Amino acid sequence: MTRILHILDHSLPMHSGYTFRTRAIMKAQTALGLEVRGLTGPRHTQDGPPVEEADGLLFHRTTGRATGVAGLREWREIGRMAQAIDDLVADWRPDILHAHSPALCGQAALRVARRRGLPMVYEIRAFWEDAAVGNGTSRDSSLKYRLTRQLESHVVAQADAVVTICEGLRADLIARGNAPARITVMPNGVDLALFGQPLPRDGALARELGFEADGAACPVIGFIGSFYDYEGIDILIAAMELLVRYHPNARLLLVGGGPCEAALREQAARSPAASAIRFIGRVPHHEVDRYYALADIMAYPRKKSRLTDLVTPLKPLEAMAQGKLVAASDVGGHRELMTDGVTGKLFAPDSAEACAGALASLLAHREHWADWRAAGRHHVETSHDWAVNARRYLGVYQSLLVPGARIEVGAAA
Asked: Which of 59, 99, 148, 371 is 20 to 30 A from 4, comparing alpha carbons?
C-alpha cells in the first residue's frame, strides 16, 4: 500500500480552515486506499502526546520550541522539523513526502527528501506573506515579507511537484517563472459525508435570538468565520443600516471571533441597526450547523486585496453545501467559486451600498431561492466534493514514482 506522509504547520485536534482541509484530504485519501499519516511542526501549539490520533487520523509531533531572533528562530524551526521528519521516515518508510504551506514545512521536507531520495510534493494553500499583511501582522514592504516570498519561491522551484488550491495562486507562480505543467490545482472542497446534511431550523434558538417578528421568521443574513479585517465584516455591519430601511425585519447573525471582534462590536452598538445584529462569539465546531440552519443568506464581503484576489475561501462552499444563498464581494477568490446570478450574488467590494443592494435583491426575489440553492449545491457536488477531488492526487503521486511503479491501493479504493 502506497504511503503518504503529510507535513503540516498544525492539525487536529486544533480547529481551523487549515486543519479541516487536512482532515478532508487525509480522510479521502484513506478511502481511496492510500496509507497516510501527518507530521506537524513546532507551531502546533495544542498540548498532547508525541503521537496522537484525532478523528481517526494519526499525527506525529515535532517536539520542543525553536528560539532566537527572527530569522534564526525560523531556521532552527526548519532544522527541528526536518529531524522529526527524518526520524519518522526511517521508521515508517513513506513513499512520498507531501508538504503543505507555509514554506517552513516545505523547506524542512526538502532537506529530508534530498537526503533520503524521496519525491516531494509541495502544496500551497495561501501565500503566508500575503496572509500576514491581510491580518495586520506584516506589511508588503517589509523585509520579512520579501524573505518569506523568496523562501516560498525556492521551495516551489525545488519541489518535484506543486499543488495549489486555486487558479489565482497557480497563475502567480507561473508569473514567477515556474513551468505550468509542474503545478496542479486541487481546489478547496467540502466533505459532503460530514457537512452535506443541513440541520432543520431550531425554532427555540431562533426565538431566543429574536429572529421572529409577529409570529413569523425573520430573514437572517449570516457570517460564520474569523473576524479579520480583510473579511469585511465592518462593511456588512454598515450594510445592515441600509438594508433594514427596506427590510425592517432583517437580522444579522455573526458567529466567530478574532482580532477585530471588539471594534466590530463597538461599531454595531453605534449603528442604527444595532437591534438587528447578534454576536454569538466562537462556538464548538460540532455546533456550527445549528447556526447555519438559522440563516437564509450567508454573506462574505471580503475586501479587495492581493490575498483575497488570489485565494479561494472555504466558507462559501460550506454555505452552498448547506443549501444557503450566498452573497459575496466580487474579488478573484470568490469569482473562482461562484457564478453571479446562478450559484450566488456578487457585489462590488469595499462598498456597504453594494453589499446592501445585493442582500436586498436576494430578499426581494424569493421565487428564485429554490433554484439558486439547488445550483449552489450541484456546484459543490460536481466540482468541490472531496470524495471526488482527492482522486486528482493519484495522478500527481503516480508521476513521481520510479518508472514502472504503480500506486498501490487497498480494498477501499
From this structure: 148
Task: Say which residue the cell 444579522 belongs to.
Answer: 252
Write b or e for each residue in 367-397: b if 16 or more Cβ atoms lie within 10 A of its Cβ, otherwise e.
eebeebbebbbebbbeebbbbebbeebbebb
Q: Are residues 362 and 391 in the same domain?
A: no
Specify whether 235 is located in the same domain as 358: yes
On whether the CB atoms of residues 342 and 375 are closer than 8 A, the answer is yes
Q: Taking all residues of the chain, what is their mean pLDDT, rounded to a whole number? A: 93
Task: List, for residues 158-203, the tens digit of each pLDDT value.
Answer: 999 999 999 999 999 999 999 999 999 999 999 887 776 889 999 9
Same domain, 226 and 367: yes
Q: Are 349 and 304 in contact (CB under 8 A)?
A: yes
Residue 413's pLDDT band (cuts 50, 70, 90): very low
Structural domain tally of the chain? 2
Same domain? 377 vs 325: yes
* 306, 331: one domain: yes
Residues 174 and 223 in one domain: no
Tell me, what CATH number does 124's domain have? 3.40.50.2000
Residue 259: how many other CB atoms lie within 10 Å: 14
- Residue-wise DSSP of 293-318: TT-SEEEE-PPPSHHHHH---SHHHH
Q: 410 pLDDT band (50/70/90 cuts)? A: low
Alpha-carbon dihedral angle through residues 61, 63, 68, 70, given to the nearest 10 degrees: 0
Question: Would you say residue 410 lies in a domain?
Answer: no
Specify the DSSP class assigned to residue 343: T
Please state the pTM of the whole predicted model: 0.90
CA distance 162 to 106: 11
Sheet holding 3-8, edge to edge: 51-54, 57-61, 35-40, 3-8, 96-100, 120-124, 161-164, 183-185
Considering the domain architecture, whether residues 339 and 355 belong to the same structural domain is answered as yes
What's the domain range around 368? 193-383
Q: What is the predicted pLDDT for the residue at 388?
A: 87
**Torsion angle of alpha carbons 20, 23, 25, 29, nearest 10°?**
-160
184 sits in which H/E element: strand 183-185
Q: Is residue 408 included in any domain, yes or no?
A: no
Are 345 and 284 members of one domain? yes
